[in-house]
Specification:
The structure is a homodimer of 568-residue chains.
Chain A lengths: L3 H11 L2 E3 L11 E3 L1 H21 L3 E2 L5 E3 H6 L2 H4 L1 E6 L6 E3 H4 L12 H10 L15 E4 L3 E4 L5 E5 L4 H5 L2 H7 L6 E10 L14 E11 L9 H4 L3 E5 L6 E4 H6 L6 H17 L6 E5 L11 E9 L2 E12 L1 H10 L5 E18 L1 H8 L3 H9 L10 E5 L2 E5 L4 E15 L2 E8 H12 E3 L5 E3 L10 E5 L6 H14 L4 E3 L5 H11 L3 E5 L1 H6 L1 E6 L5 E5 L3 H9 L7 H6 L2
Parallel strand pairs in A: 3-10, 12-14, 24-25, 24-26
Antiparallel strand pairs in A: 1-2, 4-9, 5-6, 5-7, 8-9, 10-11, 11-21, 12-13, 14-15, 15-16, 16-21, 17-20, 18-19, 22-23, 26-27, 27-28
Helix pairs in contact in A: 13-14
Chain lengths: 568, 568
């Protein structure tokens, strides 16, 4: 069994990633992506972005990471985005309250602060550092807070998710998409969560990378056109009230296990994406949120989980958020964040209106009567028997029912305004990347490590070696290296140590192919190309190198290289 | 002459970019990149990243945007990264002090706080909003401040530049590059600057995008191998003590105008990059920093400037930062951030050492004498005549010179440790993007806008139109559209309005080519492809579409399409 520490140790040793700010003692929950890590990360992003934009026609946005307080009041994060914290009265160290009582409850983060506290008292829980007394649990907001502008300025927060930057821009998107639903928007970038005490390496970070997609749909139509093409695909499901099972997406929708086609389609889409970048399908499943863990506004929510050495871990959350987000931003901003649905044919509807009796208003209110009449007309009637208060020129005036009547009028309307619903696949990029590393990690008994990354995502595609650093082999190898780089293929040139050691270095970082320039190259222009996973080798001509590597990247089997070249 | 407001208006109208958080009244100095803007931005990044990594062998890192206080103490930002601010005693509004005195001094931001204040008093400067009295100028630190972790936690800042994230990781990079200089590291990402009152659209942002490269070199060798290949290239230079002139890079280095080959090479490299993404070479120059504006540690510094409607504007700074950054981080972290240079052959050097007289120490200091002797041996001698204070088991003991002698010993050393120097090309990505937009913007007398973006960076490569929305033209057009998208080419499908209007929409957003599916397509499978800049059209077969567009993207002239297809 792979251990996360083996993977993290490889990551650090070979330049995938390492804890940030190590020369200053580090900051928990922050990592640097090194040269190889960023290659892998960018490749995963590229697969994802292309799948959503070129594949599904989603558009992309890139907004600021700092937002003004109002945005996160509307989103609920100012009030709700918190963990319960306890501190030691002795050494002042702070802890997540649920972490203190894991031995006494199967699911401590589902407890209220009061429940946690009584469990702590009952079990006499003390500070793990110094044995001191702990404070009762309090809410600790997990957003990083800052100030925008000078002086006491404006309160701002680092975004806890990229999604809000999409929601607040619903209006320009709706216009950009020519006012047609459904449409989808993605955003890729940093998210921030000021964890109390981050643990578990790349799984729980204070600063992390997200890939979020928000699909705006008609609440009355959550079908999905392309569902038909994938309806027989099988997913590993763990429904909220049952055991793990394998089931086709169409059966799951028909049985009401998955709420509707759109969620089901994006679950399948997510599983394809995860497989494509190298998450092992045998260690992947979709777990439905329990009613108790689902946000109160969510209609349905599934986590794509991967089995890691840490246990089953959420990589992607796929939720139907209903109209929650847009409704809240409408409430806080007063902006018109609706869509308009034209009826097949325009409808006649009946509507109640207030009709002022101008003949009575005039004598009573004199010069003000016109304004009062207009104000009455603009109001929605509630109860025809009661006085109405109108505001005219800053003055509140109570109008007795005798001055107006409530009448029913008929109107022709061509359509309806409504607030779209949002379906959200939200991806934790760092977790996905770490899963890809752990699932690719293999170690033989003698300690030899091969990182079996998919070629599409491997940061280095080709290791390039001159057999010896003399006799012109180096110049030749550098030429081949340059040919590859100029055709956009990343390489690693290595001329030190035995060929075996150079292979080992490339196997350890997941480079799918190695090319060696040897004395035969000088005679007939051929080089050997070696396959990482089988260690097989074939000789090909230097002129064919970029084309062969290109074909391998597009899925050519290593064994078919000869056939491909003969076929030309 | 183009006006920035025309460009910003196009940007907003068509989804390139717009002020962020508009439904909440906006936040000055923050923008959203919309669907087209992010396409353009990603394409510019890709050109830059490939030039530095595949082209020059630089490695990449991606670190956190939040850093602990110590990092920015070491970098000097806690003490120095500030603007002078004044506030109104009446309405409390804040202003940059130098903005208040632009009428009274040609270069107000070069003044000290005291000089600014006396100029304000002399000219009786009042609050521009309410006419109230202004406070004297004070320093306002421009970093966004936050707290890492719970409680009073640890002070953290949002990075004002990405560079520090590279410097603090010098040690793993040096190891990754197998301890050889020179090597270069790039980082692409957010920078933050809490401006007092941001103006000028995309030019001065509170949250911006940077692309920085840090090249670590041997201080004694600032030559550059590839300089020979580009030595006759001509740049527009504005040296610190002279007029604008055109000069070859080799002449500029020989005459001492540019400090050395490495700076000169990266100035040329920068100019090539800027031209490649669409900055007009006629509106680009390199201005050398005046001695007064150069950081005290910089050996030489040049800004790549572009002429915008705002005037000449810095896009890229290219500086020799000497050993400043690494020295400071060594001082603050005590980490060994040096490089080792092996001599051609090992040298014998003479060195002064302290030799304790153990025979005298023993009787005087008894049990402590061994430790005192050892402590003396580890010290570097300064003056053999004076007592030395050593620390032993926490106690400071003064040792009289009679207890030791200073002797000269010979040693063989194989090399030298030294602190590398850093050459930094630092790019403001948002400014580059805005320059690309402004330089591409053309408007005819009748108001018709063509955005002449380079095809490599245009967010949409092909507009795809069915002539009519019937008779199967739509299905055919969608097929061609999908073919293009699946070969990785971004398209915009448009079936509404006249063909002329659809061309106009694509011209305005800079789409280089449009393809129309018409009735002839149904007969013989050909479509028209139209060139944005010449409005010329040719017919090509649908089967050839992805190949033709691919070739155009790689530089094929539109007029040579026919020839290319015949040649097959």
């Amino acid at each position: 069994m792979v251990d996360a520490s083996d993977v993290l140790s490889l990551c650090k040793r070979r330049g995938y990633l390492w804890p940030a700010y190590e020369i200053y003692g580090g900051v928990a929950g922050m990592y640097d992506y090194g040269p190889l890590g960023i290659g892998l990360k960018n490749n995963i992003i590229e697969v994802w972005r292309n799948a959503y934009t070129l594949g599904e026609g989603f558009i992309e946005i890139d907004g600021p990471t700092i937002g003004p307080e109002m945005v996160f009041k509307a989103s609920g994060h100012v009030d709700e985005f918190s963990d319960a914290i306890v501190s030691c009265r002795g050494c002042q160290e702070s802890y997540r309250a649920d972490h203190m009582i894991t031995d006494y409850h199967p699911n401590p983060d589902s407890l209220s602060k009061e429940e946690m506290h009584s469990l702590m008292l009952k079990n006499d829980v003390k500070c793990p550092e110094c044995g001191g007394e702990l404070t009762p649990p309090e809410e600790f907001n997990l957003m990083f807070r800052t100030t925008i502008g000078p002086g006491s300025g404006r309160v701002g927060y680092l975004r806890p998710e990229t999604a809000q930057g999409i929601f607040v821009n619903y209006i320009p998107f709706y216009r950009y998409m020519r006012e047609k639903l459904p449409f989808g928007v993605i955003q890729i970038g940093r998210g921030y969560r000021n964890e109390i005490s981050p643990r578990q390496g790349m799984i729980r970070l204070r600063e992390f990378n997200m890939m979020e997609a928000e699909l705006f749909v008609d609440p009355e139509d959550k079908s999905w056109d392309a569902f038909e093409d994938i309806k027989d695909e099988i997913l590993n499901l763990v429904p909220q009230d049952g055991e793990e099972l394998k089931m086709s997406v169409s059966e799951a929708v028909e049985k009401g296990i998955i709420a509707h086609q759109t969620i089901a389609y994006f679950m399948w889409f997510t599983s394809e994406f995860l497989k494509m970048v190298g998450v092992d399908p045998e260690r992947m499943r979709f777990r439905q949120h329990l009613s108790s863990e689902m946000a109160h506004y969510a209609c349905d929510c599934w986590d794509a989980e991967a089995l890691l050495s840490y246990g089953w871990t959420e990589l992607v959350g796929i939720a139907d958020r209903g109209s929650w987000d847009l409704s809240r931003h409408i409430e806080y901003s007063k902006a018109d964040m609706t869509a308009f649905k034209r009826f097949d044919e325009s409808k006649e509807i009946e509507r109640e209106v207030i009709k002022p009796k101008f003949g009575l208003l005039g004598p009573e209110f004199k010069a003000k009567s016109a304004k009062i009449g207009k104000a009455l007309e603009e109001m929605t009637p509630s109860n025809a028997e009661e006085p109405i208060t109108v505001e005219v020129d800053g003055e509140n005036i109570v109008i007795d029912p005798k001055f107006f009547e409530v009448a029913t009028v008929k109107e022709k309307v061509s359509g309806d305004k409504f607030i779209p619903h949002v379906i959200e696949p939200s991806h934790g990029l760092d977790r996905i990347l770490f899963t890809v590393m752990e699932h690719a990690f293999t170690k033989k008994e003698d300690g030899y490590i091969v990182l079996k990354l998919k070629p599409e995502v491997a940061p280095i595609k080709v290791g390039l070696f001159p057999l010896m650093s003399r006799d012109g082999l180096e110049e030749k190898a550098m030429e081949v290296d340059e040919d590859l780089r100029l055709s956009g293929i990343s390489t690693y040139y290595d001329d030190s140590g035995s060929i075996g050691r150079r292979y080992a270095r490339m196997d350890e970082i997941g480079t799918p192919w190695c090319i060696t320039v040897d004395y035969e190259t000088l005679e007939n222009g051929t080089v050997t190309i070696r396959d990482r996973d089988t260690a097989e080798q074939v000789r090909i001509h230097t002129d064919d190198v970029p084309e062969v590597v290109g074909a391998l990247l597009y899925g050519l089997e290593f064994n078919d290289i000869g056939e491909m070249l003969e076929g030309e």
